[in-house]
Design goal:
The chain has 405 residues and is of the alpha/beta class. Among the domains are: 188 residues, Alpha-Beta Complex (Lambda Exonuclease, Chain A), CATH 3.90.320; 43 residues, no CATH class. The strands form 2 sheets. Strands 1, 4, 5, 6, 7 and 8 form a 6-stranded mixed β-sheet that branches. It is globular and about 80 Å long. 34% of the residues are buried. This is Secreted protein.
Length: 405
């Protein structure tokens, strides 16, 4: 039936607006890849870096860069503050040669040292009968899964048998600030009683059965990270338990002959576990960065990299100089800002709310600092120290005072 003359045409339905595809959520791995650079392979996070990170859990800069897999050595060079880290080629070759000697013949010498130091009550390992499983697999996830399977099989094989198993360069996974880290100890030994022992092989010497205390301490902190990662695997394996003492193998005196010492890492393990738990989650740090922030060493200029690094909060301390590749850059920034952190954590803790050297000197001379009251205990102590200094200088001859100044 047609419309009558003069009637209004029937309204036409408006076309529906085109559907707008919602942006796909960005996973943490994708976000970290964007920060690192889409074409840049991640720099592996090892136990030494984790031990240093655990020693300074408040440093968001190191947590983010390590989590994203940024090569901090190359980044420090691009920023103009290279760090003199790393072994010499000679030391590297000597270390590799010593490790190969310790593990030769199916780890015969290594197993002898371990049984001698830590095998009380267990049958002596027979050369040629120690299991050395193949741990090769595709990718770090595959190698970590293959290591976990080998540990499970070795622990099951020890039930009612005098079986020893040596895992050479196993790969362990440990979640750090919401991101997985893959760690590779020199060796892990499964005892007949189900114990798992970490073995650390170092090239520094033991002279008269004693080694450099600072180097042993660094090795203990590194081994504690391996123990933590092993405990994650042991929680899922019946009958397994991780030994809190590790075997440290070093050259004896000035020879290339191996000797060993047992190092208790319970203290280092507890400290490392507590510090890693305190780390700010990496996604929380990444969420605070300005849009377009990138640490891509291949595409970003030095100025862009500097701005990207400075966008992440740092917690510098003089101890960082011995452990972090970016320490010289962070020290320069702390000094230029007059931050009291450059004087050490102890000084920083004593000064309370006074965060800059300028504020400290002003308070000591009777001035005011923003947000700090005149009766603040820190201000009172500074002014008392300044008064004592002035009194001491008044009693010294003028020539000597001029030299002191």
């Amino acid at each position: 039936m047609s419309d009558s003359p003069g009637s209004a045409p029937a309204p036409t339905a408006a076309p529906a607006p085109p559907a707008v595809a919602e942006p796909r959520p960005t996973t943490l791995r994708q976000r970290l890849a964007e920060l690192r650079g889409p074409d840049v392979a991640p720099h592996p996070l090892d136990a030494r870096a984790l031990a240093a990170l655990a020693a300074n859990p408040g440093c968001g800069r190191r947590a983010l860069l390590d989590g994203a897999g940024v090569d901090k050595t190359a980044l420090a060079a691009a920023l103009g503050s290279p760090a003199p880290f790393g072994q010499s080629q000679f030391a590297f070759m000597r270390g590799n040669a010593f490790e190969a000697r310790v593990k030769a013949d199916g780890g015969t010498e290594l197993m002898r040292l371990l049984h001698e130091r830590m095998g009380a009550g267990s049958p002596q390992p027979v050369p040629g009968e120690v299991r050395v499983p193949d741990l090769s697999a595709a990718g770090p996830e595959g190698r970590a899964a293959r290591t976990a399977l080998a540990l499970r099989e070795a622990t099951g094989a020890t039930a009612g048998a005098a079986a020893w198993t040596l895992l050479v360069h196993p790969l362990l996974a440990l979640e750090v600030a919401g991101s997985p880290a893959y760690l590779e100890p020199d060796a892990v030994v499964v005892h007949p009683d189900g114990r798992w022992t970490v073995v650390e092989i170092k090239s520094f010497p033991m002279i008269d059965s004693s080694a450099d205390a600072s180097k042993v301490g660094a090795a203990a902190r590194q081994a504690a990270v391996y123990v933590l990662a092993l405990e994650r695997v042991a929680d899922r394996v019946t009958g397994a338990r991780v030994d809190h003492s590790v075997l440290l193998v070093c050259p004896r005196d000035f020879s290339n002959l191996p000797t060993a010492s047992v190092v208790d890492v319970r203290k280092q393990r507890s400290v490392t576990r507590r510090q890693l738990t305190r780390l700010t989650r990496i996604e929380d740090i990444a969420a605070t960065l300005p849009e377009g922030t990138s640490f891509d060493l291949e595409r970003c200029s030095s100025a862009e990299l500097t701005a990207a690094v400075d966008a992440v909060t740092a917690a510098y301390a003089p101890e960082c100089l011995a452990a972090c590749e970016l320490a010289f850059h962070c020290r320069g920034r702390a000094r230029s800002a007059g931050a009291v952190e450059a004087l050490g954590r102890g000084v920083r803790g004593e000064l309370g709310g006074l965060t800059t050297v300028g504020a400290v000197l002003a308070a000591a001379r009777g001035g005011t600092a923003p947000g700090i009251a005149d009766d603040d205990p820190t201000v009172v102590a500074l002014r008392r120290a300044a008064a004592l200094r002035a009194e001491a200088l008044e009693s010294v001859p003028e020539g000597v005072v001029a030299g002191c100044r």
